[in-house]
Amino acid sequence: MATAAKPGDNRKINLIGLERTDYKGNVSTLCAGCGHDSISAQIMTAAFDLSLKPHTIIKMSGIGCSSKSPAYFLSRSHGFNALHGRMPSVVTGATLANRSLEAIAVSGDGDTGSIGFSQYKHLLRRNVPMVYIIENNGVYGLTKGQFSATADQGQKLKYAGLNELPPIDLCAEAILSGCGFVARSFSGDAKQVRELLKAAMSYHGTAVVDIISPCVTFNNHDESTKSYAYGKAHEEPIHDITFIKQYEEITVDYEPGTVQVVKMHDGPTIRLKKLDRDYDPTSKMAALQLLEGAHEKQEFVTGLLYINEGRPTLPELQHLPSTPLAKLSPDQLRPGEDKLREIMATFM
């Protein structure tokens, strides 16, 4: 248990009395320099800054290097490592059974874009309340570097040869499937990753954050758009993002017309400071045009691509009670004889 801060104590404590170290996990066994570890560090920082209660968080994953990541953060939280590509089904069941849990899922480009692609699409159309982090490196690192569905067309790998197929854009697929929070970032851009994660963790619905995370072992050559060097040289943020918690005072330090403020569910705010382009993240068509244009020009755009809070979540669509199903008594869950007759009559 964390101890309360004492007078003269310089430790940084959040609103629920925890230190950042209370959000750590096990020591990583990933390759040294792996972008996934950078993402784990920002998940810990974001959860600490937001004062999330670790025991109310459920960490979900599938199979792959990326899906090992939940072991490396929030050791006090619940967790479930599902089958390859099947994590969306498991997290859907978990959040319906206990809507008091906050789901943070980590997947990869293979786990999401190949074997789990249909599950990913249906999760998005159902608007399951969760944070869906994609650690995207364009290869199957756990099985020695084959191309994934997000690999660049024309990319060459030492052992896999030439990729002749066009890549799947998981952000575009999310927008087309009705996801209301879609963002892309680069694991080497710590501030942007952290602020996007804070916003995603505060979003009311499915929040997808696709993070390009270089595989230092199989896919870190300069020609790859998933490499560290390419990301550093070609990243084009569409805005400077700052997440502002509800209890913080919002101060004005910018010229009118250069900042867009997006107020989120229950009060938090995202402040988007425009950089070199005029872009509206609340427009679905603008988001899709941006992604298509970036693909044609081989640009690497990052930031909050699209946000819309107009859709109800799956628990709301199912009219679930505010009390989690897992906490209801058997008598409350079991319909009576009269109710069963009424239900059966609807099938006559």
The largest pleated sheet is described as: 8 strands, mixed
CATH homology-level superfamily: Thiamin diphosphate (ThDP)-binding fold, Pyr/PP domains
Structural class: alpha/beta
Helical fraction equals 25-40%
Radius of gyration: 21 Å
The 3D shape can be described as globular
Strand line-up across the major sheet: 2-1-3-4-10-9-15-11
CATH-defined architecture: 3-Layer(aba) Sandwich
| Helical stretch tally | 11
Summarize the structure in short.
With 348 residues, the chain is α/β, with parallel strands linked by helices.
Walk me through this protein's architecture.
The chain has helices at 35-49, 87-97, 109-113, 117-126, 170-176, 190-201, 228-234, 284-297, 314-317, 330-333, 337-345, and strands at residues 57-61, 78-81, 102-108, 130-136, 139-140, 146-147, 156-157, 161-162, 181-186, 206-212, 235-237, 239-244, 259-263, 269-274, 300-307. It has a single domain (20-321), classed as 3-Layer(aba) Sandwich (Rossmann fold). It is globular and about 70 Å long. The strands form four sheets. The protein has an eight-stranded mixed β-sheet with strand order 2-1-3-4-10-9-15-11, sandwiched between helices. A three-stranded antiparallel β-sheet has the order 12-14-13. With 348 residues, it is α/β, with parallel strands linked by helices. The protein contains eleven helices and 15 strands.
